[in-house]
Amino acid sequence: MPRPAAALLRAITACTGCREAQALHSLACKLGLASDMVISTALLTSYAKRGLVARAQRLFDEMPRRDVVAINAMLAALGAAGRVTDARALFGRMLDRTPASWNTMVTCYCRAGDLTSARDVFESSLRAMSSSVVSWNAMIDGYCKAGRMDAARELFDRMGSSLPDVITWNTMMAGYLRGGDPASAIAMFHLLMRTQQEGEQRLRPTSGTMATVVAACAQVGDLALGRQIHHLIQQKGIWIDTVLSNALMDMYFKSGSVDCALDVFRTIPCSPNLFCWNTVISGLGMNGRGEDAIAAFHDMVQGRGRPNGNSVRPDGVTFVALLSACSHSGLVRVARKFFSQMLPVYGLPPQSEHYGCMVDLLCRAGHVDEAARLVQTMPGRPNAKVLGSLLLDAHVAEGQEGGVRLSEWAARRISKLDLHDGAAYGLSNVYASLQRWDRVEEHRRQVRAAVRHAKGPRRKRPGRALL
DNA sequence: GTAGGGTTAG
């Protein structure tokens, strides 16, 4: 490939924005490289990654010739956009399919939640002798993400001992973790280490393996194992990327080892990204270090805190972390300021979880009336999250009759929401803790009645008010 | 140039 084409290709694969992709596209045209199949395929993928399927499609349609890689790229673009029917049609027209074509279809169906079709395509790929370990991994991941760990495990076991690669193991571990079974994720990690020691050199754990098992340690609260794994990571010289850094920091923060967490933060190999900052801010907050959390926030937006650090734009999660940090440390005035700056300064309209944080914070500080005003003036109808905060926190303002009244107002509003939300069932307990036994019975009757109503033949659409 | 996994809040 001539030098300008190679340079252009590198730029296309590395580019990050829509306008950048468009600029590189027109550059390719001016250089007379637009008809180059490799360049066009890279551009197609670049558009697809930014969610610009229509542009990707046009590029594809205008290609004078299309090889199997170009078609596979288009197939993936359609799949990522959820256009299952179009993907299937294109796949059906393909004369020679590579394993990547089959795998793309499996992933496409899995993402659309159609596991039956995914399984059909997967089995066909086995029959067509066009499968690879990637097909198995894609299918297993589909089951994992659908919460069907039994089916995932069955496939994993069917693979035998030589076919699974480290990604297969990572997928299974992550599946267990996401499915709320961190103990099984840890068990698989031990099994992986044993298998590797028995001579499977392909099964060297990656930073992804370590991130998952560390997250599992954090969930079961096994700091001892977590530390051991941290040592193992250093001993094996596994590269601690931002993902693994986050998992380690999170584990240390959750176990109260703030200094260890900050040590990890200081040694992140590149400039910390949004995820890293969010982890640090929430971690400091949950350890009662509200002032430090706020300082971290300022470092984040100003690009300080690290030599040659970049400025990072906060997102909604950042503000949940920041506001709850304020809440844990009783920093009411600062929280009000940040909350009011969200839209005008940072361009982030407060969501219900942010209102929830503010309600939580105001109630804890005894500003029950202000919390009530906030909920009553928030745009849209307050949902179970916000009302739940109000319900659970308003009576914390002890001895305040207003608090109890507000709690009850929230309870009534919740009972008008969809009861399948689960929040309504928690109500009885709150009443009980308020020692209002008369209301407990009354509420339980309401819940029973509403559930009967919900199960009845005239079931309304879920998510709508029942009363 | 195309196909698979991993981290963050409450």
Automatic annotation (TrEMBL):
<dbReference type="Pfam" id="PF01535">
    <property type="entry name" value="PPR"/>
</dbReference>
<dbReference type="GO" id="GO:0009451">
    <property type="term" value="P:RNA modification"/>
</dbReference>
<keyword id="KW-0809">Transit peptide</keyword>
<dbReference type="InterPro" id="IPR046960">
    <property type="entry name" value="PPR_At4g14850-like_plant"/>
</dbReference>
<keyword id="KW-0677">Repeat</keyword>
<feature type="repeat" description="PPR">
    <location>
        <begin position="98"/>
        <end position="128"/>
    </location>
</feature>
<feature type="repeat" description="PPR">
    <location>
        <begin position="165"/>
        <end position="195"/>
    </location>
</feature>
<dbReference type="InterPro" id="IPR011990">
    <property type="entry name" value="TPR-like_helical_dom_sf"/>
</dbReference>
<feature type="repeat" description="PPR">
    <location>
        <begin position="273"/>
        <end position="307"/>
    </location>
</feature>
<feature type="repeat" description="PPR">
    <location>
        <begin position="36"/>
        <end position="70"/>
    </location>
</feature>
<dbReference type="Pfam" id="PF12854">
    <property type="entry name" value="PPR_1"/>
</dbReference>
<dbReference type="InterPro" id="IPR002885">
    <property type="entry name" value="PPR_rpt"/>
</dbReference>
<feature type="repeat" description="PPR">
    <location>
        <begin position="315"/>
        <end position="350"/>
    </location>
</feature>
<protein>
    <recommendedName>
        <fullName>Pentatricopeptide repeat-containing protein</fullName>
    </recommendedName>
</protein>
<dbReference type="GO" id="GO:0003723">
    <property type="term" value="F:RNA binding"/>
</dbReference>
<feature type="repeat" description="PPR">
    <location>
        <begin position="132"/>
        <end position="162"/>
    </location>
</feature>
